[in-house]
Design a protein that fits this description.
6 helices
Length: 169
């Protein structure tokens, strides 16, 4: 049994001391963890727990989508908003039809985007914006656009709190 009070205190400390990019990564981790729990619950036939886990992932995606700043985020913001909406639809269909493939697809997509945020966070002064249009690769690192990315990440997490994360039952 987990000491949930300690977990909540520890998570709150991590949230309060995290950079904006780390906060976005934590949100992705929460959504990915919820989907992994849903997959396990689906395999075990635990319908209520599966639905709760999927609802948690959908709520995190809704928060991410709702906090997008389309003025500062531009095309990236629009792309992420569309992706979040798509993943929400896939999760709803997977829950309704009780299908593993939608959960697996959602997890894979979130892990891919999470890796992009990890690249940003791992390079001081780096962001995902292409340099002078030289690369069509959306995950290319460009150190010139850090300010925009930092503001974008801050907007992504402005309204999200540690209470939104809970252990998988």
């Amino acid at each position: 049994m987990y000491n949930t009070s300690y977990f909540a205190d520890s998570l709150e400390a991590r949230v309060l001391s995290a950079t904006p990019i780390e906060l976005v990564q934590m949100l992705y981790d929460g959504a990915i963890d919820a989907i992994q729990c849903a997959r396990r619950h689906l395999a075990e036939g635990r319908i209520k727990d599966r639905s709760s886990s999927i609802s948690k992932a959908i709520a995190i995606l809704a928060e991410l989508r709702g906090s997008l700043n389309h003025e500062k985020g531009g095309e990236l913001s629009a792309t992420l908003g569309g992706l979040y909406s798509y993943i929400q639809r896939v999760l709803l269909e997977a829950n309704f039809h009780q299908k593993e493939d939608g959960l697996a697809e959602s997890e894979r997509l979130l892990k891919t985007v999470r890796e992009g945020w990890a690249q940003i966070g791992g390079q001081p002064g780096a962001s995902m914006a292409p340099t002078n249009g030289a690369s069509a690769d959306p995950w290319r690192i460009d150190t010139a656009a850090l300010d925009c990315t930092a503001h974008f990440a801050a907007d992504q997490t402005a309204n999200y709190t540690a209470r939104s994360f809970q252990l998988c039952a």
